[in-house]
Amino acid sequence: MLIVNLAQKQKEITELLESNGYTFVKKQALKHYFEVPEGTDPQEEAKKVKTLIKGSEWGQVLFFNVVVA
Q: Dihedral (C-alpha) 26, 28, 32, 34: value to the nearest 10 degrees?
């Protein structure tokens, strides 16, 4: 499971990750929990999520982090 901590663009990031195969599980304050695709390495998936967010049109200016739970 991955946790994406962010304050802005929460809806957009959830939609971005869901459209790329991640399953939104829940939200607790600024933490958004996502399931990674079955049979994948969570550490590698965290790197992919960071790249996806940074590659979006607004991702370069967001303050966020991604951790493996």
A: -30
Rounded (10°) CA dihedral 43, 7, 13, 56: -90
| The predicted structure's pLDDT at residue 20 | 95
pLDDT tens for each residue of 19-69: 999 999 999 999 999 999 889 999 999 999 999 999 999 899 999 999 999
pLDDT at residue 62, as a whole number? 93
One-character DSSP codes across 1-68: -EEEEESSSHHHHHHHHHTTT-EEEEEETTEEEEEPPTT--HHHHHHHHHHHHHHSTTGGG--EEEEE
Q: Which helix (H) or strand (E) holds 69?
A: none
